[in-house]
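Chain A, query sequence.
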Amino acid sequence: RERENHRENPDFAGPKQRQVKKQEEFTEKDIKPKIATAQPEPCDTQLIIVREDISSSD
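Chain A, predicted structure.
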């Protein structure tokens, strides 16, 4: 019976570790979209600067 209990313990630790990994993946996915959204912002600013340059040329 003790051996069976020992086997159940690692089984319980397995699923728990898997859940932690899933949470980490969720965090990475949340961070990646934020970075992707932050990139378009500077792009918009550059477009505005380019428009200002064109106006100056006129």
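The helical segments are 2-38, 40-57. The two ends are 88 Å apart (CA to CA).
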